[in-house]
From TrEMBL:
GO terms for molecular function: DNA binding. Residues 1-46 form the SpoVT-AbrB domain. Gene3D superfamilies: 2.10.260.10. SMART domains: SpoVT_AbrB (SM00966). This is Transcriptional regulator, AbrB family. The keyword DNA-binding applies. Keywords: DNA-binding. It comes from the Bacteria. The keyword 4Fe-4S does not apply.
Length: 69
């Protein structure tokens, strides 16, 4: 498990192996969530990278009448 130190300006540096694994680039934005006393950093992806990420998803589900367009 990687460990980071919070600076006097409340900043942290993500270790290189984590940046490489997640493909985080300089200047990229991260979403910060607090869940059950933990902090989660989620890389923000441009909409252009998300094209096709739901490919193969089963769309044959029953929906209530008010959910239909």
């Amino acid at each position: 498990m990687a460990e980071v130190i919070v600076s006097s300006k409340y900043q942290i540096v993500l270790p290189a192996e984590i940046r490489k694994t997640l493909g985080i680039k300089k200047g990229q934005r991260l979403h910060v969530l607090v869940e059950n006393g933990s902090i989660r950093l989620i890389p923000s992806r441009p909409l252009s990278e998300m094209r096709g990420f739901l490919r193969g998803m089963d769309t044959n589900i029953e929906r209530d009448e008010e959910e239909r367009f």
